[in-house]
Each structure stands twice: as structure tokens, then as C-alpha cells.
Write a structure and sequence with these properties.
- Its main location: other.
- The protein has one helix and nine strands, in the order ββββαβββββ.
- By secondary structure, the chain is mainly beta.
- A hairpin with a 2-residue loop joins strand 3 and strand 4.
- The radius of gyration is 14 Å and the shape is elongated.
Length: 103
């Protein structure tokens, strides 16, 4: 079954240095969808909070399986327009509406 349009939760604003978690979920897809987050139209790399990610100045952890995008400490650089895409290899992938987060 192809995925439906995912529901994205993106805060409209966040304080610098706080923890921010974004979520993305759709329930119709079978097999279960994988989720890809985008910032300003660019795909975010999957990072799991390892040492190499820190070296690259990455402040987030993204899980393709659960659809969560977690910022341990947001900075002004994290301000932007975010959306998520759900895909499971069947039918077309589905995107949620772009939401802007202001830090």
C-alpha cells in the first residue's frame, strides 16, 4: 500500500539552546514508510549522534524509521523551512506541507 500524506509536527519558533523534536508519521503505508526530512528543500543526512556527526557541526539526530528529527541544542542556523517525505517503495512518496521554524 502506498503511503498517505504524512503528518508533520514542526514548532513555529524555538529558543536558542533548547531541545526541539520534530515528528513525521503516516499510518497507511505497507510496508511501513521510511521518512526523510528536508530543510530549505535540501535532504538532511541521517545522523545518529556519533562522534563523526559532531565533527561535521551537526546538531541533530534523524531517524528514517521513526520519522523523528531531534535537535539537542538549536541555533539560529537551524531556522528554516522544514518538511518530511514518507516513502515505502510503493506508489509515489508523499510530502507534508512545508513549515517554518524560527530560532
Amino acid at each position: 500500500v502506498a503511503p498517505t500524506t504524512p503528518v508533520c509536527e514542526v514548532p513555529s519558533s524555538a529558543m536558542t539552546g533548547t531541545v526541539v523534536q520534530m515528528s513525521c508519521k503516516e499510518t497507511e503505508g505497507s510496508p511501513p514508510s521510511e521518512y526523510q526530512w528536508y530543510k530549505n528543500g535540501v535532504a538532511l543526512l541521517e545522523k545518529t549522534g556519533t562522534g563523526s556527526a559532531r565533527a561535521a557541526n551537526v546538531t541533530y539526530t534523524m531517524s528514517k524509521k521513526s520519522g523523528t528529527l531531534l535537535f539537542n541544542t538549536v541555533t539560529k542556523n537551524d531556522t528554516g523551512e522544514y518538511f518530511c517525505e514518507a516513502s515505502n517503495g510503493i506508489g509515489l512518496s508523499q510530502k507534508c506541507r512545508v513549515k517554518r521554524m524560527q530560532v
